[in-house]
Design goal:
Helices cover about 25% and strands about 20% of the residues. The protein has helices at about 1-5, 15-35, 40, 60-70, 145-150, 170-175; strands at about 70-80, 100-105, 110-115, 125-130, 140-145, 155-165. The protein is rod-shaped.
């Protein structure tokens, strides 16, 4: 019995050891392939065109940035009406409180502006035909019709966002000349 006890028994590795080695080898093989980003394989780079293809195109980066800029302004709007009815505006035309017009300090006369009331999100497009507004705390003075359309004619002022309408697609979607929202009784 003593001799049997001193004989070292050979131990057979378990199946889980083999599975672990095989799994590690597979992860190593597939892991090397996973180093390539998936986006690179799904979205290949566009072909590089010869230099003569871009010969007629302007490639000025500054010009591209200027095209993408969009003018907007956020501030407080007020309106004016009866007291100025029939008086000359900065553009030379008579002021009509029932037209969708506005006064702005710096935008060129004749510009179209999309005005959005930030309280109720109503929007109207108005034409700049006058200078102002007089109070420094305001960014725009709207005609009575525009203020009524935006829903703040009884309140007097409202927070607004102004967006300059200048792209051809935006202009095409407008029906101009603009019709008055409602004639004041």
């Amino acid at each position: 019995m003593n001799a049997i006890a001193t004989v070292k028994s050979r131990r057979i590795p378990k199946l889980s050891t083999y599975a672990g080695v095989v799994l590690a080898a597979m992860l190593g093989l597939f892991g090397m392939k996973a180093a390539t980003p998936a986006a690179a394989t799904l979205n290949p780079q566009p072909p590089v065109l010869p230099d003569d293809h871009n010969a007629g195109k302007k490639t000025d980066a500054k010009a591209d940035v200027e095209k993408k800029r969009h003018w907007y302004q956020i501030g407080r709007a007020s309106w004016y009406g009866d007291d100025f009815q029939g008086q000359k505006t900065a553009s030379g035309e008579d002021f009509d409180e029932n037209q969708l017009t506005c006064a702005h300090r710096s935008l060129p006369l004749g510009s179209l502006i999309r005005v959005t009331n930030l309280r109720n999100h109503k929007t109207v497009v108005v034409r700049v035909n006058d200078r102002g507004p007089m109070p420094e705390s305001r960014v725009i003075d709207l005609s009575y019709a525009a203020a009524r359309f935006l829903g703040f004619s009884s309140r007097g002022t409202a927070p607004v966002r102004l967006d300059l309408v200048n792209s051809k697609t935006e202009l095409a979607q407008l029906s101009y000349p603009l019709t008055p929202a409602a004639v004041k009784p």
